[in-house]
Amino acid sequence: MKNSIHHTLIQLKPSSPITVEIITATGQRLGVRSFYIGYLADQYIFLHKPDCRKSPEVDHYLVPQTACTIRALSEEGRGAVLAFVTTIVKVIDIPTKMLVCTVPSNIASQPLRKDIRIPTLIPAQIKSASAMCDVMILDLSQHGCRVLIEKEHPVDLSIKKIQLRTIETQDQASLTLECEVCSVKRQGEFEIVGLHFNDKLSKEIELLIKQLIFNQ
After folding, report:
1. Stretch 106-113: mean pLDDT, rounded?
2. What is the 3-state composition of the chain as percent helix, strand, coil, each rounded to the nearest 5?
3. DSSP tag of 64
4. What value does the mean pLDDT take over residues 122-138?
């Protein structure tokens, strides 16, 4: 097990993006972005102390003995999202802000470039040649997604070829994806539409999945 954890941690590159998630005593989940610094074999892992100006409530918990769930991105091989639980041992402010944490006892690994399905609630739009309407992306994988749309919408889904466009935010630019309609299911006043992405869009979909995981 130790060899497996060592092999996994050395795959992480300095400055790899991570999320730090803390569960409070009341069950509230607090998350903040940061990046990975390094690993001292069988002793400690080092994480950059997150900038909590946008999430001041998190800073209160970044102290020794606090357990954190870390999600990190490994680009080795086919790539994977790694998740593990660690405990803060020490907080360092000089010469750089850093969290010194325990080596995890196990690490969960989810391949990035396989057809994983991630539940989401991402506002977006779909567009045909003559119409456009708002949708909500319910889940997302490397090859497609499902969107929720009001039943009385102007887009002709029988055309099959449509565009899906994510909504631009302060942190993320919009992304336009060429899609093919592969299923339509009615659910009350809504329709759930299954979309298959153009195979040439693998890099764009991977980027969207990374943004979803790390830009929470």
Report:
1. 76
2. 15, 50, 35
3. T
4. 88
Residues in the chain: 216
Question: What pLDDT is attached to residue 201?
Answer: 63
Which residues does 173 contact at the CB level (< 8 Å), separation at least 6?
Answer: none
Do 66 and 43 meet the contact criterion of CB atoms below 8 Å apart? no
Q: Are 21 and 47 in contact (CB under 8 A)?
A: no
Tell me how far apart the alpha carbons of residues 197 and 130 are, in angstroms, rounded to a whole number.
Answer: 20
The gap from C-alpha 91 to its chain's centroid, in whole angstroms, comes to 26
Contact 12, 35 (CB under 8 A): no
The residue assigned the tokens 């892992």 is 45
Query: How wide is the angle at C-alpha 12 spanned by C-alphas 7 and 14, nearest 5°?
Result: 140
45 within 8 A of 20, measured Cβ to Cβ? no
Backbone angles phi, psi at 69, to 5 degrees: -100, 125
Neighbours of 42 (CB within 10 A): 9
Other CB atoms within 10 Å distance of the CB of residue 38:
15
Residue 51 half-sphere exposure toward CB, CA atoms < 13 A = 3
